[in-house]
Amino acid sequence: MNIRHLEYFVVLAQELHFRRSAERLGITQAPLSLAIQALEADLGARLFHRTRRSVALTEAGFALLDDARAILARVEHAKESVWDTVSGEVGRLRVGFTNASTLSPFFPRLIHAYRTQRPKVNIALLELSSSLQIEAIEQREIDVGLLRLPESALPTDVVFTPLLEEPLLLAMHAGHRLAEVASIKLADLRDEPFIAYPRQAGVAVYEQTVALCAKRGFEPQVVQEAQQASTLIGLTATGLGIALVPSTLQTIAVPGVVFRHLDETDTITTLYIAHRYRDANARAMQFVELALGLR
């Protein structure tokens, strides 16, 4: 059954006049008549009583009319649904993020703005380390990632765009010997015990810390590992060790913990937004554009 034939049938059923129906459809009477004949042949029933003076629906025509209207409405709904999906108005968006990125004011502002602009899009937020986000983007398990670049080689099929820069700060117990020092260098931390993320967790800040220390000729002495940013800061309050953390972690207010800037030029960490190269996902591209506009 041809959808166009159903459209012609519904118009003719409303007008009950071939010339007016053809004019309304923007065609001549001949193709309209042929379409109705073809539809009747498909259904095996006459749909109209035709005379030289009048056109009227048959019993079969009346039976078809409601169904034809319903079919055409469903077809139109399907077109709108596909268009909404392609244009990014509906569907699902999977966004990866690191534990520390949620502490930046930028993160809730971005998510809230996107949900306001695209209320019909189902946004799923997945907490993953930077390395795991990159793998998830490549495997199409997430659409966009908010992450920091690991020290390892980056895939060529993922696009990384910088969003925000922030300094790495030294978190320590308030009674630490460096807490009152005016100028702190990374080299001053050579013999200090560190609290850090697990090496195998794929956290970019850990990798950056190791690389920065290596440039100064030493390896950080990690005495305690922590999976979460809040745990990392909390453990520094025990005096067990120090930690290098993004400045956004200052929002974790733990009594007895102080944060100090380093007198260095390369202790900067950058938050990136990542997505697949030439991704056809309109929702992902709209999210990226919004993030770049808000930075």
In short:
The chain is an alpha/beta fold and 295 residues long.
| Oligomeric nature of the chains | single chain
The amount of beta strand, in percent, is 15-25%
Structural class: alpha/beta
Rounded to the nearest angstrom, the radius of gyration is 32 Å
- Please, how many helices? 9
CATH topology of the largest domain: D-Maltodextrin-Binding Protein, domain 2
The CATH C-level name of the largest domain is: Alpha Beta
How many structural domains does the protein architecture include? Answer: 2
CATH architecture of the largest domain: 3-Layer(aba) Sandwich
| Biggest β-sheet description | 7 strands, mixed
Number of strands: 11
Unreliably modeled segments: none
Terminal-residue CA separation: 53 Å
Q: Which word captures the global form?
A: rod-shaped
The H-and-E topology, N to C, reads as HHHEEHEHEHEEEHEHEEEH
Q: Mean pLDDT, rounded to whole units? A: 92
Helix content: 40-55%
Pfam family, one: HTH_1
GO molecular function, one term: DNA binding
Keywords: DNA-binding, Transcription, Transcription regulation
Domain HTH lysR-type: 1-58
Secondary structure elements and pairings:
Layout: H1 3-15, H2 18-25, H3 29-43, E1 48-50, E2 55-57, H4 59-86, E3 91-97, H5 106-117, E4 121-127, H6 130-138, E5 144-147, E6 158-173, E7 193-196, H7 204-215, E8 221-225, H8 229-236, E9 243-246, E10 257-261, E11 268-276, H9 282-294
